[in-house]
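Bug report (template v2)

What were you trying to do?
Predict the complex of my protein with iron/sulfur cluster.

What happened?
Run completed; filing so the output is reviewed.

Input:
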Amino acid sequence: MDKLREKVRNLLKENKVAGYLGYIEGEGGHPLPHFFTKERLEEVERAIVPPDNARYPLDKILESLAAAYPDETFAIQVRGCDERGLNELYKWGQLDPDKVVLVGVACTQAQADYCECPAPWPSVIDYGEKCEPVLQSRRVSRIEALTQEEAFQEWLGHFERCIKCYGCRDVCPMCFCKECSLEHPELLSTGKVPPDVIFQLVRAIHMAGRCIDCGLCEEACPAHIPLRVLYKKANLLVKDLFAYETGSPVTGPSPWKSLGEEVTLEPKPM
Amino acid sequence: MAEKEFEPKIIGFFCNWCTYASADLAGISRLQYPPNIRVIRVMCSGSISPHHVLRAFQKGADGVLIGGCHIGDCHYLRGNYMTIKRVRFLQDLLKFTGFEPERLHLEWISAAEAPKFAEVVRKFTEKIRKMGPSRLKQAA
Ligand code: SF4
Ligand code: SF4
Ligand code: FES
């Protein structure tokens, strides 16, 4: 942790950033998201990398910060997924890459296994060490192996537990729209729980090529719906169909953002 | 009482400049096609959002047929480049969730292709009739 704290301290002292968005060890040892500034430099002593199961959508907090202080540069703690999120947010014009400084954390093997994460470290590592990435999601392959009827029954069973709390959307670092289709009365029924069966599909469509697989939605969902499996698949499809790698700094723009210069696909035969 | 034969409800989202016109021509040419299709005219197949397709299924459609101009002929040049991306993606997503992707079909039909139009509508209606009522409808 010393290396990370030292970097943060220097960034603040040398006025390279207006603040650092990370985590602090709060009362009773609770890890909390925190905004560190030069004025309270002594707090950097308590700057931490939280345990794997205490992650917050820092990217999302950075979006509000950047919107409120567009001229300032901020440092932010990122894991692999958080950095993918930033890359995607740059592409969508939500953040300016020149105004973001990374403080990077490599995930533990346990976390990478739990997430089935293909890239569990950011481009800058200030804490932790690279572990083995997980290149294939077993959770996705399991569903792919089901028959149509089995898959339908399984997903229906999940979707019918939804209490429409919008927790999945609210925690999502990639959900930045001012108006949300999930609340549009002409696209989905209102005043109904569980919501329309298509509710999660609508969200999956919006997450395709945008979800950076942080898993926060699935952790937030009180109904334990395996949302992440759905979005992992949506991203795999975007990769297979359009060669788009979500969260990569290289591929872009998103296939949904431009019509494209050529057509490689054909309608499926009837 | 004898059970009534299942009559599928099919929603057709047709581009104004091609498939919709081919439907007109089919009518003028007295070509026969099943009356199960409810047509929604759009200005370009590229303006059909996956939302509209899902909404149609949620509201009880047994099949959704999208008709657009051939690639290269779109009135707005490349609107249909988006159509094919959306449809192919949605079909694969529907497949993953077991939501019967075969109920969604895209066909490029130009204004002159009235016989093709009648044939596609006939084939699609028959296919959906064989499949029976949509699963999603039963769940909704
Ligand atoms: S895993 Fe969930 S919360 Fe995280 S980016 Fe994807 S949809 Fe959003
Ligand atoms: S968090 Fe879970 S229960 Fe809440 S709206 Fe999302 S899917 Fe439904
Ligand atoms: S105008 Fe017909 S598909 Fe665009």
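What did the reviewer find?
The pocket of iron/sulfur cluster (ligand 2) is lined by residues A 162-168, 220-223, 225, 227 (CB under 6 Å). The beta strands of chain B are 10-15, 37-42, 63-68, 104-108.
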